[in-house]
């Protein structure tokens, strides 16, 4: 089985070795084997880190990810994944709505073209200023 030293692993996943040691300490990564005093990880750790990152991008906390990774691969794990992801979807929907509103505000500002933040009617907090 191919193994990667912590430095090689860090370079491949573009993380600092200290972050990998932290992930290992909180149980996101399996304990590294020691070879001549150096941490080495099985090559499969690359997939595990990819999964952690994907879950983070989806909005899962490290604690939630750890709970998901700690479960076995049986029906209980599938049920737990389903429960957590069903709870996460409304959060993601809210994030998408907020991001879309921000995108629209930036597009409106660009379309306005006034480039004068002090007198821009789009940035005014006075609703009456919009009628002028």
Please mark out the parts with pLDDT under 50 across 5 or more consecutive residues, or reply none: none
- Put simply, the count of helices is 5
**How can the largest sheet be summarized?**
3 strands, antiparallel
> What spatial order of strands do you see in the largest sheet?
1-3-2
Our estimate of the beta-strand percent is 5-15%
Radius of gyration of CA atoms, rounded to a whole number: 23 Å
**Content-based structural category:** mainly alpha
> N-to-C terminal Cα separation, in Å?
72 Å
The whole-number mean of residue pLDDT values reads 84
Q: What's the SSE pattern?
A: EHHEEHHH
Outline? elongated
Kindly state the number of beta strands. 3
Helix-residue proportion:
55-70%
Question: Can you describe this structure in just a few lines?
Answer:
By secondary structure, the protein is mostly helical. Helix content is 58%, strand content 8%.
Q: How does this structure look, described?
A:
It is built from 5 helices and 3 strands, in the order βααββααα. It is mainly alpha-helical and 132 residues long. A hairpin with a 2-residue loop joins strand 2 and strand 3.
């Amino acid at each position: 089985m191919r193994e990667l030293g912590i430095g090689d692993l860090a370079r491949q996943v573009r993380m600092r070795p200290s972050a990998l040691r932290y992930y290992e300490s909180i149980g996101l990564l399996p304990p590294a084997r020691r070879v001549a005093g150096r941490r080495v990880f099985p090559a499969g750790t690359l997939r595990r880190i990819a999964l952690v990152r994907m879950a983070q991008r989806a909005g899962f906390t490290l604690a939630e990810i750890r709970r998901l990774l700690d479960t076995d691969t049986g029906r209980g794990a599938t049920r737990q994944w389903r429960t957590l992801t069903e709870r996460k979807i409304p959060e993601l929907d809210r994030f998408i709505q907020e991001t879309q509103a921000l995108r629209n505000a930036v597009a409106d500002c660009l379309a306005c073209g006034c480039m004068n933040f002090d007198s821009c009617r789009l940035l005014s907090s006075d609703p009456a200023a919009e009628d002028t």
